[in-house]
């Protein structure tokens, strides 16, 4: 089952005194990189969220942010965290002793994260509400990754069919081309030297033909295509394996281009390489 690494989800839970907004963004990355940005009031669920994400996603850069908006239509009482203010003041007094500086503005202290608390909604928010709202947003993200993964799979299958068609064309062209080359070489050599031994001539021609024979490369590409098709149906993350298989197909395509002297086969190998590069671009978004 293919999952795309590119996805986005936004969910807003509306309550009486507050709204919780979750935003999750996923982009392609070599490894799993999770960034969680939560307000101070709900930092205590960060570890739970991290474990949840890492359980279901194995690769990609994940940004998870939450915002809490107070409902302005409701009366909200403000509180201050006295312990936090005392800690800040102690630090200010200590620094003032070490290096003399101007008095700190009280408003600057009030702007410190966590100093001002909103009484009404803090008493109302609970773990279940937070986690369930996150779960809803996260499931949307996962569903989008799965949906886009299905579309990527269709694209890869279509391009894989075109690669198979090119390989079949090569198989059809190659024997006829090699036979023509053999006759052509033999006639040219005989024109230059009629006294050459036939057996020796046949051996030299066969050796030259073997050097330009691409059957081995074609067979290896077929093996890689079969491996690619099986990998697409794997339920585990397949992005890295796909990239390796596609690299091998490109390598064999380059060998065909350099070995063959048939214009049609060279053109087919170039098209094959282009198709593989296109698949590789799609595969970069696969988990």
Automatic annotation (TrEMBL):
Cofactor(s) of this protein: a divalent metal cation
GO MF terms held by the record: hydrolase activity; RNA endonuclease activity
Limits of the Endoribonuclease YicC-like N-terminal domain: 2-153
Keywords: Endonuclease, Hydrolase, Nuclease
Limits of the Endoribonuclease YicC-like C-terminal domain: 175-287
NCBIfam families xref list: YicC/YloC family endoribonuclease (TIGR00255)
Stated family: Belongs to the YicC/YloC family.
Record protein name field: YicC protein
Organism of origin: Wigglesworthia glossinidia brevipalpis
Gene for this chain: yicC
